[in-house]
Amino acid sequence: xxxxxxxxxxxHEYRVGLTPSSVNELVKRGHQVLVETNAGAxxxxxxxxxxxxxxxxxxxxxxxxxxxxxxxxxxxxxEQECKMLRExxxxxxxxxxxxxxxxxELLVKSGAICVAYETVTDNQGGLPLLAPMSEVAGRMxxxxxxxxxxxxQGGRGVLLGGVPGVAPAKVLVIGGGVVGDNAAAMAVGMxxxxxxxxxxxxxxxxxxxxxxxxxxxxxxxxxAVEDYALEADLIVGAVLIPGxxxxxxxxxxxxxxxxxxxxxxxxxxxxGGCFETSVATTHEQPTYVVDDVVHYCVANMPGGVARTATIxxxxxxxxxxxxxxDDPISALFRDRNLQNGLNVHKGKVTYKAVADAxxxxxxxxxxALKA
Length: 371
Known about the structure:
37% helix, alpha/beta, Rossmann fold, 7-stranded mixed beta sheet, 2 domains, globular, 15 helices, 8-stranded mixed beta sheet, 15 strands, 371 residues
């Protein structure tokens, strides 16, 4: 198969779909790989390294999209990229379609076969291609939150870990999954006063045992969210409903009663955000203020540590890329976990949460593949 890696065009996005090492694995399996010139240059993956791995370097995205049978990216295609996709072409990347009607419409019109990293599953019900970026984003959320708590950044002027004689900052993590766990680990490590809210008692037990009393693990109710939010210096929104729009957990009214200079970090912003006042931002302009509360809602947070994130992501995505390249239809039929990643197939929406969110008729992935 002829695979291709376009250069990123999203604001401050530096991650790349395939590393030179991944390219080499594909080439050794008999596949051909095209890489747009300088696709990985920003994170020290040079054209020379890609050539040494067996790739062919091309000069334009137009050539990438016109020649390739399979496009491998990291972030969702931008509008001009969607319009270059063609029927039957495979797109393998993060999509986050539920809160994005424009992208969904363009992908449906393209007739492409669109496999979303964020809905591929494993045998334990986990999300193995989302997990690496969730780990990165969870850790970065506290790093970013600590920075924006500084007075010069608009925050309360609070040091996350405090000092002897001064209490540490209060950090509220809403959601105890991969993002929440990694956020808590960073916050605990920095000496903060950490509370984790979740609706799974078994998960709360796991986290309580893991942190050995260094966090409060509290069952999440509306009352608990309100009580802890009003005391918090930093809140990390870490909730996820796979493939669906994120639930709104903090209302505008509640945010208006929070402490002046408190910081909200919405890691769920790719799925529409979990705070009522959340609007996607970029690394160039990462924050804004609503009711004296600082909002950090960067939609591609792991792009800030793009080299680490790219390598971590490729470790997870490469096996599925190899399977799709070897025999895409067989791979999607044979592997139910990979099939769960199929969101759009030749004009049909094949992921129920996306169809429900945006009003499309839902066609089961196996039915679409048979057709």
